[in-house]
Amino acid sequence: IPLPGMPVFPVAFIPNKGKMKATDYCALHLKLRGLCGEAGIKLLASGADGAKSETKAQQLIVNKKTDKRLSYTYEKYGVYLSCPVYSDTGPHICTTDPDHARKTARNNFLYSTLLLIIGFMYLCHSVLMFLLTLIGCLLFIKDIFNADKQDDGAARRVAFLADSSFQILMRLSDQFILLTLAHLEYYPNTPFIPSHHGTHFLEHFYGIARSFIPDFSFGQFIEMYKHIIIRQRILSSGQYNSKKEKDSNNGY
């Protein structure tokens, strides 16, 4: 459970060959949840960045049968939300990273969509190129040309609502409601910090690692760990500026 003034830190790193399926991720999460229960640690949420296998794993976790569930219903609009509640670790809510949602909304256009029809209007790359020529345009050249698909700033300036981004935004709304209810019913005396639920820390953590060694091995990553932690804490304090600081937004 995120607490104010408490720095985020990794507990374990588990390498994989990129072949893990949704069932594998689900089993791993449930195993970690069990370990938390044995250690007396409350586990409120588990996050993912939106990859399909991770999203499916989260759905498996949400559908896990338990004796008790945390639920919210609004029949007028067909809203039915719930998550499992465990006796030892409490409600378990699956969350999606907000920064990833912004990037997905922006990158839908850059990946494969060549033409978007919006009512009687249309949008394509030539329109964005024209917008760049207008005085006062908030877009940057790199938002359109040679775009960095991991750029958080660009994701805030350019966004398109395709089906994939719509689904992520819906999950963000659902998780916010469930997190609010969980704090209300189970942790009323614990500050609610929704901005700390996500993979933002890991994105920057691996981004800093890449600033040291762009293509690192697992062994090199372990060796860099303490240096990354120190730099991450300095960057989080806001008292340090670096010409390469933008690289920490690139994630992995």
TrEMBL record:
Transmembrane stretches, start-end: 109-141
Q: Which UniProt keywords apply?
A: Membrane, Transmembrane, Transmembrane helix
Q: Is Transmembrane one of the keywords UniProt gives this record?
A: yes
Question: What is the protein's given name?
Answer: Uncharacterized protein
Where is the organism placed in the taxonomic lineage, from the top? Answer: Eukaryota, Fungi, Dikarya, Basidiomycota, Agaricomycotina
